[in-house]
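Worked problem 6 (solution included).
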Amino acid sequence: MKYFYFLGLIVVLSSAFVSSPVTNQSQPIIKASMDRGKIIYLQRCMACHQVDGSGGPRLNPPLDGASTVKGNDKLKLVRIIIKGMTERVEIDGEYYDNNMSANPDLTDTQIADVLNYIRNSWGNKASIVTIAEVKAARTKIK
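Solution. The predicted structure is:
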């Protein structure tokens, strides 16, 4: 009986020193991606979407809190960044009319970085976009 108690105690105590490697190792990577994405955002997106992601009424949709930004359709977001938008768009019940310029010159890494920034800044909290996801999405965009 003492043997099982001792064994259980060792398991419990040793688990206290084991951290989650995925979370701890990925945090600096995610932060670095978002830091790079912020620079791209400030250079390419801020003029229309504002520094706080609030957009402009009836012209440029907000990125902060937008279901499209926080949603699971990463292909759509990659397509918008690469191809831009020229049609009127409805987001969360509001319509926006301003065109968004295309950004075909951005690399897969830059697109992942800027998406990670907008999907996880202000009030947004969404899954991370990987370079592999952007690369796969790019192959589907004509």
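Discussion: The mean pLDDT is 86.
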